[in-house]
Fold this sequence. Notes:
Blueprint lengths: L2 E6 L3 H4 E11 L3 H8 L3 E2 L4 E5 L2 E5 L2 E2 L16 E4 L2 H11 L4 E11 L2 E11 L2 H22 L1
Antiparallel strand pairs: 1-8, 2-7, 2-9, 3-6, 4-5, 5-7, 8-9
Amino acid sequence: MSEKIVATNRRARFEYFLLEHYEAGLVLQGSEIKSIRAGQMSLAEAYVRLDGHEAWLIDAHIAPYEQASINNHEPRRPRKLLLHSSEIRKLYMDIRQKGVTIIPLKVYLKNGRAKIEIAVAKGKKNYDKRAAIAKRDIERELNRQTRT
């Protein structure tokens, strides 16, 4: 199974506790998949919204494809996610809790198709973030000491 990671949300693991992971397909236009294959995508401000019986990726930026000229796409348009209805129901039940949301983690190409990994996440408090930074610093210091 060939997998090429196109975009990652690097802040997600720092800002949120990740509870459950899901893989979803993306409904894209022709110029969008060409931009994704060229690596021109950002998940920095993206999130997932559930609308009735559908899931939508909001605020993900896919750069316009240069060769598409007049047939180009809107860079930040909402994109439908392809999930099973049972998964959408489960996601809906999960996000009804306070402080829980759905965030995209990474976009990758799997067997020529664009897939997105999303996660049910709960926001971290500032003291949780400080603890994560302290733990990372301690590990970095231990690695430096063992190398010398």
